[in-house]
């Protein structure tokens, strides 16, 4: 399972003999090691989740005590707030455009690099670099200028600045995500390199051509990695914030076309001080992400192939 | 084409390979264009920024950098840089210490509820930050810690970034158990064997953790946006945000000069540690 010269790739655990050590003492020591994590998990994760669930049923502005309003935040969100629905459709559109494009590009480049003899390391690093830089405000500002009136894209296509046109602004944001395809690409590449060469040799002996090898060997063997990338990138895409903020100067414009969910949540909670409403929004996001992940996991049974099932 | 002229005469040219290389180079040019544009624009006179497609400035306008170094809102860039470094450095220290402690317990020690707690830890990797954001803000607000760096650094000392706990657990599981057995026979308790035996061997995973933490914290915008108000507490990222509101073209040059300065640490980290970064990312996707 280890790849050549990879310090960070974990090697499989050696099976240990059952412990004969004094259990009591170890147990106490374990909790000492765990104590920072336990404190963080309770005070900064579990407690806040419970509190935000409570707040989602209240009217709260940070200064006055929370006032119980029952389900009103939720009913208002779903039935009376067109901007809320706008933020939902905007985010879904963004996820549906950005994630498949990004993963497709990542897969194509990984396949191109897989059998490369020379320059593989160079390309891998160079394509990966945007994944580190892309989340920064600096690059978001560059994107804003490139897709603005008189920017490079305007000059090349004559389409005007995308970020000023409601139908196009979100696409500019999505392209920034696609630009960062390097992280899933590196993961694909690592996955591709773990496919045993014998499988391809056996397929070739059986008369399978390149395409057949791809469909019958590469795709099933890579499906767990594809699944991992899909889940990870989808969850991240649901939470996109910085580029939408930068492109629209924090307003989600033009005409709310870049008003992604987290931007509207920020606007309700931290600009308009409707913390109860924002908490309700956060819980809906949590439930939606959980549901999407669950659906992905459920469908994965039919298309993800685990060669080493029961192996660990 | 140089490929053709340098090829050994008897070998036929692999046109497939050449095509792949050409494709990759073309893709690379498109990918790197925004970075080249950023660097070029940071050195352009104000009137050339959006006037033409020409990437090269007519002359190098170093005054953009001079203006950028004067800072924003009367706060010097050294102050902004120092603030960014302080937050990123604190986060690195916190993550490395707290995540390796928790990881050791999960990877090597036995305790009640280990299975469920490990599953819970994994689940928190998927947890959207926004679900806990508002109450965390309220807690820090009640403690009077809003507009300080505590909300940005303290959580890292409590191992809240479970991704890194998982990364280090995976790595520690690969280390041979015999090492600790030997240490135990020599009289080392769990603390000594963690500190003396396991931790030094975990260094690659710790370095990966440190680098990713630094870059993610350096790039972070949302948390800094909600917690910091005073311009003299701002980071480079927040200072750049001030430029988002000021859309006048004359500020373009200095704004992108500052953007270059803000990206510089990441670029340097990338050049110095690219192997760790790429391998770290690769290993995260594998069922190790």
UniProtKB/TrEMBL annotation, chain A:
<feature type="transmembrane region" description="Helical">
    <location>
        <begin position="275"/>
        <end position="297"/>
    </location>
</feature>
<keyword id="KW-0812">Transmembrane</keyword>
<keyword id="KW-0813">Transport</keyword>
<protein>
    <submittedName>
        <fullName>Sugar ABC transporter permease</fullName>
    </submittedName>
</protein>
<keyword id="KW-0472">Membrane</keyword>
<feature type="transmembrane region" description="Helical">
    <location>
        <begin position="213"/>
        <end position="232"/>
    </location>
</feature>
<feature type="compositionally biased region" description="Low complexity">
    <location>
        <begin position="1"/>
        <end position="18"/>
    </location>
</feature>
<dbReference type="Pfam" id="PF00528">
    <property type="entry name" value="BPD_transp_1"/>
</dbReference>
<feature type="region of interest" description="Disordered">
    <location>
        <begin position="1"/>
        <end position="23"/>
    </location>
</feature>
<dbReference type="InterPro" id="IPR051393">
    <property type="entry name" value="ABC_transporter_permease"/>
</dbReference>
<keyword id="KW-1133">Transmembrane helix</keyword>
<feature type="transmembrane region" description="Helical">
    <location>
        <begin position="125"/>
        <end position="147"/>
    </location>
</feature>
<feature type="transmembrane region" description="Helical">
    <location>
        <begin position="92"/>
        <end position="113"/>
    </location>
</feature>
<keyword id="KW-1003">Cell membrane</keyword>
<comment type="similarity">
    <text>Belongs to the binding-protein-dependent transport system permease family.</text>
</comment>
<feature type="transmembrane region" description="Helical">
    <location>
        <begin position="30"/>
        <end position="57"/>
    </location>
</feature>
<feature type="domain" description="ABC transmembrane type-1">
    <location>
        <begin position="88"/>
        <end position="296"/>
    </location>
</feature>
<feature type="transmembrane region" description="Helical">
    <location>
        <begin position="167"/>
        <end position="192"/>
    </location>
</feature>
<dbReference type="InterPro" id="IPR000515">
    <property type="entry name" value="MetI-like"/>
</dbReference>
<dbReference type="InterPro" id="IPR035906">
    <property type="entry name" value="MetI-like_sf"/>
</dbReference>
Automatic annotation (TrEMBL), chain B:
<dbReference type="Pfam" id="PF00528">
    <property type="entry name" value="BPD_transp_1"/>
</dbReference>
<dbReference type="InterPro" id="IPR000515">
    <property type="entry name" value="MetI-like"/>
</dbReference>
<keyword id="KW-1003">Cell membrane</keyword>
<keyword id="KW-1133">Transmembrane helix</keyword>
<protein>
    <submittedName>
        <fullName>Carbohydrate ABC transporter permease</fullName>
    </submittedName>
</protein>
<comment type="similarity">
    <text>Belongs to the binding-protein-dependent transport system permease family.</text>
</comment>
<feature type="transmembrane region" description="Helical">
    <location>
        <begin position="85"/>
        <end position="106"/>
    </location>
</feature>
<keyword id="KW-0812">Transmembrane</keyword>
<feature type="transmembrane region" description="Helical">
    <location>
        <begin position="18"/>
        <end position="40"/>
    </location>
</feature>
<dbReference type="InterPro" id="IPR035906">
    <property type="entry name" value="MetI-like_sf"/>
</dbReference>
<feature type="transmembrane region" description="Helical">
    <location>
        <begin position="251"/>
        <end position="273"/>
    </location>
</feature>
<feature type="transmembrane region" description="Helical">
    <location>
        <begin position="193"/>
        <end position="218"/>
    </location>
</feature>
<feature type="domain" description="ABC transmembrane type-1">
    <location>
        <begin position="81"/>
        <end position="273"/>
    </location>
</feature>
<feature type="transmembrane region" description="Helical">
    <location>
        <begin position="152"/>
        <end position="172"/>
    </location>
</feature>
<keyword id="KW-0472">Membrane</keyword>
<feature type="transmembrane region" description="Helical">
    <location>
        <begin position="118"/>
        <end position="140"/>
    </location>
</feature>
<keyword id="KW-0813">Transport</keyword>
